Amino acid sequence: MTLKQVIEALVFASPKPITTKEIVAALRAAGEGTEDQEAKDFAAAKEPGVLVALAEVQADLVASGRAFQLVERVNGWTLVSDPACAAWVRQLYPEAKPTRLTGPQLETLAIIAYRQPVTRADCEAVRGVSVDGVMQVLLDRSLVKIAGRAEVPGRPLLYSTTEYFLQHFGLKTTDELPNASELKRIVLPTAPVPVEEKATEPKAEELPLSADPAPETTEPTEPVAEAEPESAPEPESAPTAEPEAEPEQPTEPV
After folding, report:
1. pLDDT in tens, 99-136
2. What pTM value is reported for the model?
3. Domains in the chain, ordered, with CATH?
4. Taking a C-beta distance cutoff of 8 angstroms, is the pair 94, 192 a contact?
């Protein structure tokens, strides 16, 4: 028994795609509490060694011309039938008809895949038509998900592709999309700036206009300053009253 055979058996028996970490964990678990030296040796395998064994299994299946292949998906390694046999394999599942996307749906999905995360308004700017119904179909089919909100006025929703999108098209990452590096550099139309962003600028311009009443608030302070001299004459009347009382005192001694 070789490590390559054990790994091939794990991939074959797994009900779902299996990752390299899961393979390493299974090898370690099998080597615990056993006296089998071979199992203990396999338990010491690391992820780089597992990847080498997986590559060897891939090469063996291709060289032998088998009708199935070992492929790596976004969620792990799995065995799949040769695409050349699709016409015959499909006869086993007559009720499972593939759901086809329309032209507008494919166009919108392509915009999201190459420009994600992207807002609905940006998709409409590229296509020139509304994508409300199309976007809902993509959401219902789990090809697209809401990835957050954009940091612009109104905070519109951002859309990106899902893991199911990668599985459906047989991709590990979006970098494997056709001409991904070239198309991502192309400048595409974008949605106009929301009205709310410009609405804040007039408020700043209105500040000088609202500052005009400010001098009016200073004018009442000037009358306050003028009121002080008006109160000044009051003490003048006080001294005039005092001299009038003084001449009356000298008349008493006389």
Report:
1. 788 899 999 999 999 988 999 998 998 888 988 899 99
2. 0.59
3. 3-92 (1.10.10.10), 103-183 (1.10.10.10)
4. no
